[in-house]
Amino acid sequence: MNCLYCDSPLPPGAVECPNCGAPAPAESSVPPPQPQMPQFAPAPQPTRKKSPLLAELLSFPVIGLGQMYNGQVIKGALLLLVTVILVFAIHPMVFWIFWLLAVLDAGRIAGKINAGETVTPWTFF
Ligand SMILES: [Zn+2]
To answer: Which of 14, 90, 95, 118 has the largest CB neighbor count within 10 A?
Structure first.
């Protein structure tokens, strides 16, 4: 994109011509560079992707591990702690209830992260 008045090249997104100071055609010059940005942006995105299957598998041996994998570290640790306390305080069967919940929750949260949904450190299911 060049200046309409002096024909000097305008930097992308420029509001006015750096050479003569004439207002640049902002509305038409700004959009073209933007669609190209996502093509370079996806590089950091794979780190945000979570595998629901892996999150569930991690919850199999250790309750809360799948939650930690999803980035919900405190929630995962508390889930494990609460499970241990309730197993001793109430009944060993409590373990399997929390185990199932933890596995299902880890898979659901990983799916939400993948879908781009807002997941707070305390989001359940
Ligand atoms: Zn100019």
So the answer is: 14
Residue 49 confidence (pLDDT): 85
**DSSP 8-state class, residue 47:** G
Q: How far is the CA of 57 from the centre of ligand 1 (A)?
A: 61
Distance between Cα 9 and ligand 1 center (Å): 8
- State the Cα–Cα distance between residues 104 and 63, nearest whole angstrom: 11
Tell me which residue has tokens 């509305």.
27
Q: How far is the CA of 36 from the centre of ligand 1 (A)?
A: 25
Average confidence (pLDDT) over 61-67: 95
* Structural domain boundaries in the chain: 1-41, 47-114
- CA torsion 47-53-58-63 (nearest 10°) is 110
Cα–ligand 1 centroid distance for 26 (angstroms) = 13
Distance 40 CA to ligand 1 centre (A): 30
